[in-house]
């Protein structure tokens, strides 16, 4: 083969490669155009506005109200505080909540300058390092599901044991990303298989409307507030119980899908201001008219559980939209 023939052969081969590349590019562009014009159109309908963002760092502990929060797959985050990422337990790992110890609702857990801060009525403030990587990882249970948490130390244990006047040692654990999390689908197949949460009862987000609580108050002798029901997101500018129908919502760039109604229990009868439990209202009244979801059997519904499909930052004052296609 002489030099001229070799050059022509190389040119011919490269020409075929170039033509193949051009053909592939045209095909991909064509598919993109087809997808653009054939995909369902996304429609947003304004249904309300965010009036409160509420983080509950410690399960059954005092709420922290914030103006802005990251909405992550495992729930709300504000600074070092993440929703229900601390859990009170017995030494053998069983959870302790406001159902058994209603005064837990008066315990404030915050983070400041790399320290974990605990405050409670008639108790001295306790500050310990937020991260204690040498502490033991403990196996725990949230209802019937096995989880893990990093022990927060003996000082915290002593503080909580004294505060609760418990004859058994009480400890506090903190969830870390590499530890065993809950998978809500293990107890309810309605949740996505890949959903993971730290220590909530069920879902990463619970949303409810102010109007639903106002409706409840028209049936009670004494008013209650949204704090009695421990939501993550509170919405106004809507009718009572319309959140029951918001299957897919968007707030800012965050998108969430409704999973199931929040079935209410005796914890709703704990007053968040006094830590006193009545075991009657508002639960008894809710049972008279809010047994609306057969999936929750005998539990009355107030508020809705959501899975986070697209993460982002939430702000008080943002509109809430339903999403349809």
Counted beta strands: 19
Order of helices and strands: HEEEEEEEEEEEHEEHEEEHEEE
Strand order of the largest sheet: 1-14-13-17-16-15-19
Class by alpha and beta content: alpha+beta
Rg, Å, rounded: 26 Å
Instruction: Give the fraction of residues assigned to helices.
Output: 10-25%
- Report the β-strand fraction as a percent range: 25-35%
Biggest beta sheet attributes: 7 strands, mixed, barrel
The shape is: globular
What is the terminal separation in angstroms? 63 Å
Please count the helical segments.
Answer: 4
Question: Roughly what is the average pLDDT, rounded to an integer?
Answer: 92
Q: Low-confidence parts lasting 5 or more residues at pLDDT below 50?
A: none
Outline the structure in words.
With 325 residues, this protein is α+β, with helices and mostly antiparallel strands. It is built from 4 helices and 19 strands. Strand 3 and strand 4 form a beta hairpin. It is globular and about 75 Å long.
Short structural summary:
The protein has 325 residues and is α+β, with helices and mostly antiparallel strands. The protein has 4 helices and 19 strands.
SSE topology:
Layout: H1 3-38, E1 43-55, E2 64-66, E3 68-72, E4 75-78, E5 81-82, E6 86-90, E7 108-112, E8 115-119, E9 126-129, E10 137-142, E11 145-151, H2 154-163, E12 170-174, E13 205-209, H3 210-217, E14 233-236, E15 248-251, E16 254-263, H4 283-289, E17 301-310, E18 312-315, E19 319-324
Parallel strand pairs: 13-14
Antiparallel strand pairs: 1-2, 1-14, 1-19, 3-4, 3-18, 4-5, 6-12, 7-8, 8-9, 10-11, 11-12, 13-17, 15-16, 15-19, 16-17
């Amino acid at each position: 083969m002489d030099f001229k023939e070799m050059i022509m052969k190389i040119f011919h081969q490269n020409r075929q490669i170039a033509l193949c590349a051009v053909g592939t590019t045209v095909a991909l562009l064509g598919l993109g155009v087809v997808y653009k014009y054939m995909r369902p159109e996304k429609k947003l309908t304004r249904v309300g506005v965010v009036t409160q963002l509420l983080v509950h760092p410690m399960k059954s502990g005092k709420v922290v109200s914030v103006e802005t929060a990251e909405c992550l797959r495992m729930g709300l985050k504000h600074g070092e505080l993440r929703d229900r990422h601390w859990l009170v337990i017995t030494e053998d790992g069983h959870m302790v909540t406001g159902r058994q110890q209603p005064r837990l609702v008066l315990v404030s857990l915050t983070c400041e300058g790399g320290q974990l801060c605990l405050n409670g009525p008639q108790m001295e403030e306790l500050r310990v390092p937020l991260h204690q990587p040498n502490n033991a990882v403990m196996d725990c249970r949230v209802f019937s599901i096995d989880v893990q948490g990093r022990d927060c130390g003996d000082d915290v244990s002593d503080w909580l044991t004294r505060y609760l006047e418990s004859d058994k040692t009480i400890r506090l654990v903190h969830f870390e990303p590499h530890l065993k999390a809950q998978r809500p689908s293990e107890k309810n197949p309605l949740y996505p298989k890949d959903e993971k949460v730290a220590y909530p009862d069920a879902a990463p987000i619970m949303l409810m409307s102010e109007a639903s609580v106002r409706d409840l108050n028209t049936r009670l002798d004494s008013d209650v507030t949204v704090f009695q029901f421990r939501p993550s997101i509170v919405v106004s500018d809507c009718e009572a119980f319309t959140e029951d129908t918001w299957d897919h919502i968007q707030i800012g760039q965050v998108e969430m899908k409704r999973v199931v109604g929040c079935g209410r229990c005796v914890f709703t009868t704990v007053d968040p201001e006094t830590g006193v439990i009545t075991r009657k209202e508002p639960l008894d009244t809710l049972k008279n008219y809010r047994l609306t979801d057969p999936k929750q059997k005998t539990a009355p519904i107030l508020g809705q559980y959501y899975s986070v499909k697209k993460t982002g930052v939430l702000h008080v004052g943002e509109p809430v939209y339903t999403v349809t296609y």
